[in-house]
Design a protein that fits this description.
By secondary structure, this protein is an alpha/beta fold. It is built from eleven helices and eight strands. Helices cover about 45% and strands about 15% of the residues.
């Protein structure tokens, strides 16, 4: 019997979501973007695409890029301020993506979406048509939520959920969420030395939800809780989902090679 991880080796249509904590140096780096990680991510995505896989990137980081651009020392608390920072940072982030993709000979396209694709059939159809056309053109779509006009999305870190919605929308086989932790633990590894990494989850029950805890970093807006929400959406639609540490170069490739990296969520 082929295991869930072995199936990853042949997955053709893959959604990768990268979090703010992976893309930036955080508060100690004055919220500047981590160009080393971004370049390695883009090189890895391009190489996977060159293998014949279809890659869709869902990215956070616009607000972080705006904070870094303005030289602020912390993330503002109000929605209008974060919307303004997203508007500033979106161009900065996309310029960097475009530069690195171009260096590796890959064309990308930016799409700004909101969670309206979950309930607005017209928005769903238009978004699906755009994405499918880009994939046929051998283009890698780079998706971000439209933070400059969004409100609730900024509060709840909806890029995790958005990535699951995108995966469902286009019939992806796997969703990989890159973050700053190795996967789902049965405790908080930052305070509990005995916390153990859970390699596979085949049922998202109340016990798993309790393990998710609260929100994430100061700069990001999600956390393990929103990743569990995303896993529910993905698995319910027959899509395997992984939580993988995006800070370690090569983890994405190792995960898709079927190695025991991170936590995989799949149906029993």
């Amino acid at each position: 019997m082929i295991t869930s991880r072995e199936k990853l080796k042949s997955a053709k249509r893959i959604v990768v979501k990268v979090g703010t904590s992976t893309l930036s140096h955080g508060e100690h780096g004055k919220f500047k973007l981590n160009l080393y990680r971004i370049e390695h991510l883009i090189r890895e995505l391009t190489d996977l695409h060159n293998e014949g896989r279809e890659i869709i990137l869902v990215t956070s980081g616009a607000i972080a890029a705006g904070i870094g651009k303005l030289g602020l020392n912390e993330k503002p608390q109000t929605i209008p301020e974060n919307q303004a920072l997203a508007a500033i940072g979106q161009g900065v982030l996309m310029h960097i993506y475009e530069k690195f993709f171009a260096e590796y000979g890959q064309t990308m396209a930016q799409l700004l979406l909101t969670k309206s694709i979950a309930f607005d059939e017209h928005a769903r159809e238009n978004s699906r048509n755009s994405l499918m056309t880009l994939l046929k053109m051998d283009v890698i779509p780079v998706i971000n939520e439209n933070d400059a006009v969004a409100t609730d999305e900024i509060r709840i870190g909806d890029n995790d959920n958005l990535s699951a919605m995108v995966a469902e929308l286009i019939g992806a086989e796997v969703l990989i969420i890159l973050t700053d932790i190795d996967g789902l633990y049965n405790g908080n590894p930052k305070v509990d030395a005995n916390a153990k990494l859970i390699h596979e989850v085949t049922e998202i029950n109340s016990e798993i939800e309790k393990m998710a805890g609260g929100v994430g970093t100061k700069l990001g807006t999600g956390g393990m809780f929103t990743k569990i929400q995303a896993a529910k959406i993905a698995v319910a639609n027959g899509i395997d989902m992984l939580i993988v540490n995006g800070g370690e170069v090569g983890n994405l490739r190792r995960a898709l090679n079927g190695e025991q990296v991170g936590t995989i969520f799949s149906k029993a």
